[in-house]
Design goal:
The protein has helices at 2-27, 72-76, and strands at residues 31-43, 48-53, 63-68, 83-91, 94-102. The protein is α+β, with helices and mostly antiparallel strands. It has a domain at 31-102: OB fold (Dihydrolipoamide Acetyltransferase, E2P) (Beta Barrel). The chain has a five-stranded antiparallel sheet with strand order 3-2-1-4-5, with no helix packed on it. The longest helix is centred in the first third of the chain and has 26 residues, at 2-27. The radius of gyration is 19 Å and the shape is elongated. The N and C termini lie far apart (77 Å).
Amino acid sequence: MRTCAAIVLFLLLAACRQATVKEEAKDEPLRHYPLHGEVLRLDAQGKIAAIKHEKIGDWMEAMTMEFPVKDQSEFDKLHPGEKINATVFVQGNSYWVGEIQEDTAPAPASK
């Protein structure tokens, strides 16, 4: 019986901690960063875009990473191989990409 009570107490404390973390994230400011990169692949089921990107402000060095796309219409704009300009939204430990536009600037000339 004590074991069951201890497990229930542990689960309740864990649930309270998760709620606190979510509330803390909502209290953190929403930061915006411009993103310039190339879409490498898409996961339609998870609405995830793998993007090879340049440095993102003071938040992230240049690399390839997966970004959630919250809005379905934004996700539908994406195509593998496409160069894009977008905004990365960061709040606490959460991040996602939006305001997606195709990068129509001509490629720099090779020397």
